[in-house]
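Researcher: Can you fold this with 5-O-phosphono-beta-D-ribofuranose in place?
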Amino acid sequence: MSDRGPQTLAVARTELDQLDIDQPLVGIVMGSKSDIPAMEPAERELSERGIGSETRVMSAHREPDAVADYARNARLRGLRVIIAGAGLSAALPGVVAAHCDLPVIGVPLTSRTSVAGGLDALLAIAQMPPGVPVACVGVDNARNAAVLAARILSA
Ligand code: RP5
């Protein structure tokens, strides 16, 4: 039995509710600043649905420690789904999935030196080893990643 009075509990509950107002539920990460235009539709779609998100640029190859830290802390920070976009040898979604147990939705992106119109990134994201799943939307289809994230959140 709690030794806190009803008023104290009510105040605590109100403070908690206020904390939750701006809490991002979806983390949107991408491997390069050059990915921002392709990933913007994800943030827009979530915003139109009233779902809070945060956006970060971090590369699995260029900043592996930052990616690992972000993924390891994601659940603790209140995130429920992570959308990860990357082009070329697109390791970012898989590395995020390796370091956390949240659902990860990968967005294969085209970039200046993509092979076969983004097939390189599509395969890198979809062909994850058993036990480390990454959901994969179509090439450059960040909006679908947001729609899927919304469905996961409401499941
Ligand atoms: C990937 O390499 C990024 O996700 C981007 O799609 C691609 C090219 O990156 P930049 O050379 O434009 O930084 O890591």
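Model: Folded with 5-O-phosphono-beta-D-ribofuranose in place. The mean pLDDT is 92.
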